[in-house]
Amino acid sequence: MSEGLQLARDKMTAAGVNAQAIEVFSHYYAQLQQGVTGFIAEDSITPLEHPDLLADVTVDEDEARTALGATVMIKLNGGLGTSMGMDRAKSLLPVRDGLSFLDLIVGQVRAARSAYGVTLPLVFMNSFRTHDDTLAALASHGDLAVDGLDLDFMQSQEPKLRADDLTPVEWPADPSLEWCPPGHGDLYTALRASGILDRLLELGYRYASVSNSDNLGAAPDATIAGWFAASGAPYAAEVCRRTSADRKGGHLAIRKSDGRLILRDTAQTSKDEMPFFTDEHRHPYFHTNNLWFDLERLSQTLTERNSVLGLPLIRNEKTVDPADSSSPAVVQIECAMGAAVEVFEGATAIGVGRERFLPVKTTNDLLLLRSDVYDVDGDGRLVKVTDPAPLVDLDTAHYKTISAFEQRFPAGAPSLRQASVLTVAGDWTFEADVSVVGAGQLEDEGEPRTVPSGTVLGG
Question: Helix, strand, coil % (nearest 5) of the chain?
Fold first, then answer.
């Protein structure tokens, strides 16, 4: 065993990291040492072109209810929203009428429980950075938990590795920055290590529906649950038709060597093959990061593989302090949850509409969700009232962080219901009752400016 790996294992043991997680980390560390890139060559795959489509699926209502009754909703909630300048769980960010992602998710689950008469547990996978804030916020939803199940389980943590020698980095200025979560591919190991997987099976649950907590489109869906149960598949991915706006999203493809579905992300594509990756006509479906799996099959597979599913490595290169580009370069070992599609023989995919994919990755996305382009229905679902949704492009120099964004929209989002595009260059603060009609554009005036109340941009 190399010195770097031994130091990393010792550090994880001292921090109380689960033994199964340490073995998974060691598996990927060995790949790093061997120079594994994780690249998936274009000539080794064929595109996924004809998945089942949700629009064509018909499921008997009783079968749908039975399937949903055997399902647990799992939300990935380990992200801090650091790309938007946040330092707590992104799911706590207000989205509509003072309600956060968390509040709306709870509303969606409650509505499904009521409509179908099912227990439908809701469980969050938190990280060491999001656990406390999330549970504090959930305390206001006193009857949410299902008897016998906790509301969350913890994602593992692992040391960031120095890029020069692969030893655990040291950063006395903020020791917490020496650690990182191992990517959402840790879901499977964390489910087992936490005991949640065994407990779900003991309570009679059979299926899991998993999605990101910042994607409010991934509400409980009895039709998909019924389709998945009837398919007999061990695993299914929800995919969407790609557009030019989705060129960077990971896509599913079929591996030529064995005919299995696989996930390919940008980090698994060499620079010279990026034109293939970003061609939305060549690879027409992207992975929404909504997925379903059979809990029994997952348990069996983890047992057979000693908890190491062997998902493809993602080598993520950053600096130890993400806010300080001069801090030491580090490597973070990660893997993608969706890559598990290749582990399960018989895994499949289903094509869903854009209403199932409403992630918030930037303040552009947040402005759109806060605007009148969407309404919130009685089930907590976001309903688009104009189609297509306008394209929003805010100047990252002035709107990238949540605090800067909030300062410039103190009265809330402008009306975008009649807009096709909103492009803002420069530093503009929007007063109340601003509307965009057609293509609205603001140029950089070189100094802070204000869009007065009652203004109609474009038109």
Answer: 35, 25, 40
The more confidently predicted of residues 297 and 38 is: 297
Q: Which residues contact 330 (CB under 8 A, 6 or more apart)?
A: 160, 161, 162, 163, 169, 317, 318, 319, 320
Question: Which domains can be identified in the chain, with CATH numbers?
Answer: 3-356 (3.90.550.10), 363-458 (2.160.10.10)
State yes or no: cis peptide before 388, omega within 30 of 0: yes
Residue 81 has pLDDT above 80, yes or no: no
Amino acid in the structure at residue 397: A
What is the spatial distance between Cα 442 and Cα 455, in angstroms, rounded to a whole number? 12
The whole-model pTM stands at 0.92
Percent of the chain with pLDDT over 90: 77
Parallel, antiparallel or unpaired: strands 449-451 and 435-442: unpaired
Cα-based distances in Å from 263 to 21, 194, 250: 22, 26, 7
Q: Which residue has the tokens 């479906």?
A: 285
State the Cα–Cα distance between residues 167 and 164, nearest whole angstrom: 8
369-378 exposure pattern, b = at least 16 Cβ within 10 A, e = fewer: bbbbbbebee
Helix (H/G/I), strand (E/B), else coil: 131: helix
Helix (H, G, I), strand (E, B) or coil at 142: coil
15-55 pLDDT per residue, tens: 999 898 999 999 999 998 888 877 899 999 999 988 999 99
Cα 212 to Cα 123: distance, rounded to the nearest angstrom: 12
Residue 89 has pLDDT above 90, yes or no: no
pLDDT per position as a tens digit, 66-79: 999 999 999 999 88
In eight-state DSSP terms, residue 356 is G
312 has pLDDT over 90: no
Which sign, positive or negative, has the C-alpha torsion 254, 257, 260, 264? negative
Pick from 179, 205, 180: which is nearest to 191 by CA?
A: 205
* Alpha helices in 203-264, H assignment, sequence order: 222-231
